[in-house]
Amino acid sequence: MAIDPLAQMRWSAVFAGWFVATGIAILLYGAGIALGFTAFNPHNAEAAAKGLGIGTIIWMILTWAASLFVGGLFASWFDGRADDTMGSLHGITVWGVAMTASTLWLALTLGQLSHEHKAPHGDRAGATAMVDNEPMAVLRTDVHRTLGSQRENRPDSQTEKALIAALVAGHTDTARAILIAQTEMPTDAATMRVNTWLPVANATRDQLKSDADRLKHYAAVGMLTLLLSGLAGLIAAAFGGWMGSRHIHRIYHLRRYEGRPFRG
After folding, report:
1. 229 with 61: CB under 8 angstroms?
2. What is the distance between the alpha carbons of residues 211 and 36, in angstroms, rounded to a whole number?
3. Residues 93/9, Cβ–Cβ less than 8 Å
4. 23 CB contacts (<8 Å, ≥6 apart)?
5. CA distance 53 to 160
6. Which three-class secondary structure state does DSSP give residue 1?
7. Tens digit of each residue's pLDDT (9 = 90 or more) over 157-173
8. Which segments cross the bilayer (predicted)?
C-alpha cells in the first residue's frame, strides 16, 4: 500500500489570499476614512478627535479581522483541498505574510520620517512643535532678544539652546553663567534676568511633561491596538482557512471529495 506524501503548502494560494486580504483592507480603510470625515465636527474638535480616536481603534481591529478572514477563506479555496488542517495553516500563513509586509512598511515609513526630521529643512517641524508649546515659544523669543541686544554680532543658536535647556532644567546658576559669558552682563543684572525667566521656564517644563505623558499614553494605546489587531487577524485568518476547506465543495461543485456531498 502506497503511503500518501505529506500535505504541502501552496504558496501561490497563500499570496493570492494575501492579495485578496490587502484589497479588502484597502476598501475598509477607505470606508473608515470616509466615515471619519463625515462624523468630524470642526466646531467641537476636541470631542470629535476623541470619538474619532476610539472609532479608529475599533475600525482597525475589525478591518484586520475581516480582511484576513476573507484572505484565509480564499487561500483555502485557491488551495483546492478539503483538508481542514491545511486550510487553517494556509490562513495562518496569509496572516504571517500580512504582518511581515505591514511591519516592513511601518519600518520604512518611520525611517523616512526620521530622515526628514534630521534633514536641514526639518527645522520647520521643530518650529511647529515650538509654537504648540506656547511657554517655550515665549521663552525662546525673549532669550533670543536678550542675547541679540547685548552684542552686535548675531547670537549663537547653540548658546540659545544651552541657555534655554538650563532654564527649563531649573539650573539657574548654569543659566546665569551662560548669560554672563555671552553678553558680559553684570552679575546682578544677569540674576534679575534669569529670575524673570523662571516662571516661563517652569511653565515650559510643565508643558513638556504633559506632552511626554500624552505621547506615552498614545504610544501605549497604539501598541495595544496593534496587538489586538494582530490577535484578531490571526484568529480570523485561521478560522477563515478552516471554513474555506470545509466548504470547498461549494466552490468546486463538480468535483467529489471524501465526506462531502456531490452537488451537480
Report:
1. yes
2. 25
3. yes
4. none
5. 38
6. coil
7. 787 888 888 888 888 88
8. 15-40, 52-77, 89-108, 218-242
**If you search the block for the grid coordinates 497563500, which residue do you land on?**
14
Long-range contacts of 201-207 (CB under 8 A, 24+ apart): 201/135, 201/139, 201/164, 201/167, 201/168, 201/170, 202/170, 203/135, 204/133, 204/135, 204/136, 204/139, 204/167, 204/168, 205/168, 205/169, 205/170, 207/133, 207/134, 207/135, 207/136
Q: What is the distance between the alpha carbons of residues 21 and 74, in angstroms, rounded to a whole number?
A: 9
C-alpha cell at 245: 476547506
**DSSP symbols for 57-110:** HHHHHHHHHHHHHHHHHHHHHHHT---HHHHHHHHHHHHHHHHHHHHHHHHHHH
* Neighbour count for residue 78 (Cβ, 10 Å): 18
Distance of alpha carbon 124 from alpha carbon 120, whole angstroms = 9
The model's pLDDT over 132-150, given as tens digits with 9 standing for 90+, comes to 678 888 888 888 787 777 6
- The closest alpha carbon to 80, from 5, 4, 8, belongs to 8
Between CA 121 and CA 186 the distance in angstroms is 38
For residue 51, how many other CB atoms are within 10 A of its CB? 15
Cell numbers at residue 59, please?
475600525
Residue 11: band (very low, low, confident or very high) from pLDDT cuts 50, 70, 90: very high
- Contact status, residue 245 vs residue 82, Cβ threshold 8 Å: yes
Residue appearing with cell numbers 465543495: 249
- Rg over alpha carbons for the chain, rounded to the nearest Å, is 30
> Which DSSP state fits 28?
H
